[in-house]
Every structure is written in structure tokens, then in C-alpha cells.
Amino acid sequence: MTEKLSYLNTETYKQLGQANLLNDYPERIIQIGDGNFIRGFVDWMIFEMNKKSDFGGKVASIQATPRGRTVPKLNRQNELFTLILRGIENGETVKRKQVINSINRAINPYTNWHDVMKLAEQQEIEFLFSNTTEAGIRYEKEAYPEDVSPLSFPGKVVALIYHRYVHFNGDKDKGLIILPCELIENNGEELKRICLKVIEDWNLSKSFVQWIDESCVFCNTLVDRIVPGYPKEEDQQLFNLLGYYDELLTVAEPYHLFVIEGPASVESKLPFKQAGLNVHFDKISSYRELKIKLLNGPHTMLATMGLLSGIETVREGIEDSLLFSFINNALIEEIIPTIPSNEKEKARTYIIQTFDRFANPFLNHRLINISLNSYAKFKARIWPSIYEYRSKIGENPKRLTFALAALLYFFKDEQTKYEIKDDTHVIDKFRHFYSEFDNTKGSLIAFIRDLIDEDFSLNDEELSDLYEAIADYFLRIDKEGIKPALLNLEKGD
Ligand SMILES: NC(=O)c1ccc[n+]([C@@H]2O[C@H](COP(=O)([O-])OP(=O)(O)OC[C@H]3O[C@@H](n4cnc5c(N)ncnc54)[C@H](O)[C@@H]3O)[C@@H](O)[C@H]2O)c1
Ligand SMILES: O=P(O)(O)OC[C@@H](O)[C@@H](O)[C@H](O)[C@H](O)CO
Predict the structure, then answer these.
(1) Ligand nearest to the CA of 38
(2) Is the CB of 83 under 6 A from ligand 2?
(3) Vertex 34, ends 33 and 36: CA angle to 5°?
(4) Which of the following CATH numbers is that of domain 10-281: 3.40.50.10490, 3.40.50.300, 3.30.70.60, 3.40.50.720?
(5) Of 21, 130, 147, 222, which is least surrounded by CB within 10 A?
(6) Is residue 225 in contact with ligand 2, taking CB distance under 6 Å?
(7) Distance 372 CA to ligand 1 centre (A)
(8) Start and end of every Mannitol dehydrogenase C-terminal domain (predicted)?
(9) CATH fold of 285-491, please?
(10) What is the mean pLDDT of residues 11-28?
(11) What is the Å distance from ligand 1's center to 432 Cα?
(12) Count of other CB atoms within 10 angstroms of residue 128
């Protein structure tokens, strides 16, 4: 980066002849978390609603953790950032760049808690969106700090809405519609449950709890869009294309899906559909099962098996004929059988769409980023299919079992090929085992049994044949290398 580059800001924006988009709507939305996903999804949707409906509202964005580094960047750019949507949509190539202007303010609550309290007093605020990763919706005991920001995300939500409740003397019309976008099951219910626990810890009044029940709505949601973030490798080309430098530029696919489970009143207040957005006010469970099993599942498998094969991105993984046929066969032959009959057709269509999304020629979705916390993701995204397949078909799904062996092997190759990012206790457990591993099948099986018993918690079905199959595949990978072992598996050897 050279000094001469001009950054995106309102001046640069005006010079580009875009001043008409600098609209002056009131802040109607609070957002907690300011990462790539929430900006490339929620903030983009609000931008679209402001353009195409009578929504007319802006976002006040609050940094989620003391580690956050985005607020100064947003402030420097007058809260503007560029979103580039690239991919294939209905057979057509889409390359769309937009300067998103839906954020009005970005606040660091650790240095400016007073601003957050003032924000809670604003009449027009109606919605709270968040994305704090799966780690954010978690209960942490902390004292009620009153004059400074709570550390946890639920703590911030409680402090903010409590201040609003007090300021408006419990006015029933001043509650908020809360839409967490973290990818955990029943995210709205879970956030509310934790908030109530925080309220109990902080000894806040029963009437506040009643106000939350009557005036606030916590919606469950499901989000879907691949947002790889800033493409570092395209720094110079992007500057040439845009004429400015934007540290917060985000690349995403055009595909998007937002499913919201909540009362009809929420739908009427958020004109997503009027803006032409793919948003459904519906039950989440069937969308969720398809997405977790058929999109996040193959991502997790590709991440470990691709990295073990020296492949760096999702697209390269899908272009590799061996990896592609492995993943495709795993989905069709081993995961589809676990999907209810009335959903199978929808699932087949979803698989075709998913491969198109993975093959997006304009995204570099890095496997190393997807591999973050692979161990927990395997448990949530692939293990249920192994278990359900065994219950229904009465044997091990060979590819999913191989993928589990590859995951264990992934931790063995740690530090020689890539840096694993996972929970410390997971990394320690593997390091400990591999430091003493004597290369015998017996010790491997004992380790696998312990792992599955301890972490993948099942009922007490007899799983010895599964442990043995995992150990066999592991030893094959060790002896032959991942690709020859895969080839042999696909050939049926
Ligand atoms: N990037 C994608 O393609 C994509 C797609 C769908 C869903 N998601 C979901 O979005 C999440 C974030 O992805 P991203 O690409 O925006 O990542 P990011 O690193 O750009 O942003 C992460 C955000 O979460 C906050 N955060 C991190 N740890 C936290 C904690 N312990 N408590 C509170 N806040 C915390 C950060 O401050 C930041 O605001 C993912 O975990 C995933 O569940 C991502
Ligand atoms: O974001 P993660 O780390 O939970 O999972 C990696 C990807 O599978 C995920 O980000 C998908 O791209 C996303 O879920 C698509 O909507």
C-alpha cells in the first residue's frame, strides 16, 4: 500500500458522482458485531431496502469484543464500504460493485459506553441484529458494570435494553425486535435464555423481565451466503477498478437466503420482499438441516481433505476430479439417505446449487479459514449423518467414515503443512496422543473410542466396527497418502 492511495469516504464517494446515495435516514437498527458476514449480508440488505422500499433506516454498529479493529476503519471511511458480489446467477455471470451506506455510526463500547446508552434512548430504534460468531452467544458470569461496557454479547444486549426500559418508563411500545444471525440452532431462543440468566445475576426487576416478554421479540434465524471477505491477492486490481482504497471491501456471492422465524408483525415491519430479497418468514428446521448437512458439511470435509492434499480453496477442491467425486458420492449416497423422504427432491436440487456456488470462479474461499474449529464442526455437521446412516442402513457410510479418519490425520500433520486453529483443549488432546502414538492399530482404536465417547456423546450403541473402520482408513492415509487412499476408496479397493 502506498501513501498516495485515497481511501473511500464521503468525499471520494461524491467525486464518483454517487452523492445521491448519501441519504439521511434515522438510525432504526442497532447491530452488534461488524465482521465481514454481517456487513456483506445484513448491511447490504438494509441498503437494498432503503433503495427499493419505504424502510428508510440506518444502522448504529457496535463493536463486539475488545479485540475488534473495525470501528476505526469504519470511522475513517465515514462508515462506507464496498461490497462486490461475484458469481453465476441463473446461468449469467454477475459482477456487481456497490458502496454500502447503510451504517450511520460505528461505536467502540469500551471507550464510548455513554454513546451506547444514548443510542438506547433513541425513539426510532426498533431492531437489533448481531453476528458475533458461534462463540458470542454464550453465558459468561460477569458483574453488572453500569458505567462501562459488559464484556459478553448477551451482557451488552441486557445493559442496552435495560437502559431503554428505564429511560422510557417501561413503555410497551419501545421494545426491540432482536434478530441474531449467529449460526447456532434456535439462536433467538438461546440468546433470550442467556439474557434472562444475566438479568437474574444482575438482580434486575421482575417488571423488566415482563417487559421483555411482552415488548421484545427474539427471532430464530438462519443465514446463508458465502462471504470470503477481503481478497488480499487482488489489492492492486481492485484499486485500479474502484479508484480508491477500501480496507473494508468485502467480496461475496450473489446467492443469499435469510429465514426468519417470528410473529407476522416482524414481517410487516421489515420489507425485505418488497426489496426483492430472498427472505422467508417461515419455520427454519428443514432449511437448516439441508444447509448444515449439504453445504457446511462438505465445506468441513473439503477443508481438511483439501488441505491434506495441498489444495487451498473450495473452488480448487471442486475442480479436483477425485475430491469432487468423493464429495458428490458422499452427499448422494450417504447423506441423502438420512434426509426425510419428502425433502429428498429439494435436497438434490440444493446439492446442484451448492456445487455451482462452490465452483464460483470469482471467489477464493480459503480452506484454511473454513478449517477453523473443524473438530466441533465435524461433530455438528457430519457426525449426525454417520450416525443416522448406520441406524437406517445398518452399516458404516464409507466416505463419511473416511472423512472422519482424514480429520484425525489432519491434526497429525499439524505445523508441518498448515496452522490449525481450533479449541486449545482439542489441539492439546491430539498433540498429547500423537506425541506418544506407537503406530499400532490397537492404540489408534483406543484413542478413537475415547474421542467419540468423550466428545461426540451418543447413546450406547455398539460402535466397535466404526472405530475399526476409522483406524483402517487412518492407517491407509498414513501409508499411501491422502490422494491414493481416496482413489482406492472410490475404486472400491
Ligand atoms: N463468512 C461467511 O461466509 C459466513 C456465512 C454465513 C455465516 N457466517 C457466520 O458468521 C460468523 C462470522 O463470520 P465473518 O466472516 O463475519 O467473520 P469475521 O471474523 O469477519 O467477524 C467476526 C465477528 O464476530 C465477533 N466475535 C468474534 N468472537 C467473538 C466472541 N467471542 N464474542 C463476541 N463477538 C465475537 C468479532 O468481533 C467480529 O465482529 C461465522 O462464525 C459464521 O458463523 C459466515
Ligand atoms: O463460517 P463457519 O466457519 O461456521 O463455516 C465455514 C463455511 O461453511 C460457512 O461460512 C459457509 O460459507 C456459510 O455458512 C454459507 O452460508
Answers:
(1) 1
(2) no
(3) 120
(4) 3.40.50.720
(5) 147
(6) yes
(7) 11
(8) 284-423
(9) N-(1-d-carboxylethyl)-l-norvaline Dehydrogenase; domain 2 (1.10.1040)
(10) 84
(11) 30
(12) 22
Residues of the chain with CATH 3.40.50.720: 10-281
Q: Which three cell numbers stand for residue 485?
A: 487412499
**In the block, which residue shows the cell 463486539?**
64
Q: Which residues of 390-415 are buried (b: 16+ CB within 10 A; e: fewer)?
A: beeeeebbbbbbbbbbbbbbbbbbee
379-422, pLDDT tens digit by residue?
Answer: 989 999 999 999 999 999 999 999 999 999 999 876 667 788 88
**Ligand 1 pocket member 35 (CB < 6 A):** yes
User: Is 253 a pocket residue for ligand 2 (Cβ < 6 Å)?
Assistant: no
The closest residue, in CA terms, to atom 10 on ligand 2 is: 226
| Residue ID of nearest Cα to ligand 1 atom 2 | 227
Ligand 2 centre to CA of 226 (Å) is 7
d(CA 473, CA 395): 16
Say how many Å lie between the CA of residue 377 and the centre of ligand 2: 10
Report residue 111 as a C-alpha cell.
471507550
pTM score, whole prediction: 0.91
pLDDT in tens, 446-492: 999 999 988 886 666 789 999 999 999 999 999 999 999 999 998 88
- All three cell numbers of 301, joined, read 470435509
Calculate how far, in angstroms, residue 370's C-alpha sits from the geometric centre of ligand 2: 7
User: pLDDT tens digits, residue range 88-126?
Assistant: 887 889 999 999 999 999 999 999 999 999 999 999 999
- For ligand 1, atom 34: residue with the closest CA: 132
Ligand 2 close to Cβ of residue 261 (< 6 A): no
C-alpha cell at 58: 440506518
* CB-ligand 2 contact for 135 (6 Å cutoff): no
Ligand index nearest the alpha carbon of residue 290: 2
CB 84 within 8 A of CB 131: no
Instruction: Return the C-alpha torsion angle 175, 214, 220, 387, nearest 10.
Output: 150
Distance (Å) from CA 24 to ligand 2 centroid: 34
ipTM > 0.95 (yes/no)? yes
Task: List all residues 6 or more positions away from 317 whose beta carbon is below 8 Å from its beta carbon.
Answer: 302, 305, 306, 311, 323, 324, 327, 358, 367
Query: Residues 294, 296, 302, CA angle at the centre, nearest 5°?
Result: 95
Region of 418 (left: φ > 0; alpha: ψ -120 to 50; beta: rest) is: beta
With contact defined as beta carbons under 8 Å apart, do 337 and 343 qualify? no
Q: What region, left, alpha or beta, does residue 354 occupy, with left being phi > 0 and alpha being psi -120 to 50 degrees?
A: alpha
Strand order in the sheet with 250-252: 92-100, 81-89, 250-252
Whether 271 is in the pocket of ligand 1, judged by its Cβ within 6 Å, is no
Q: Does the C-beta of 65 come closer than 6 Å to ligand 1?
A: yes
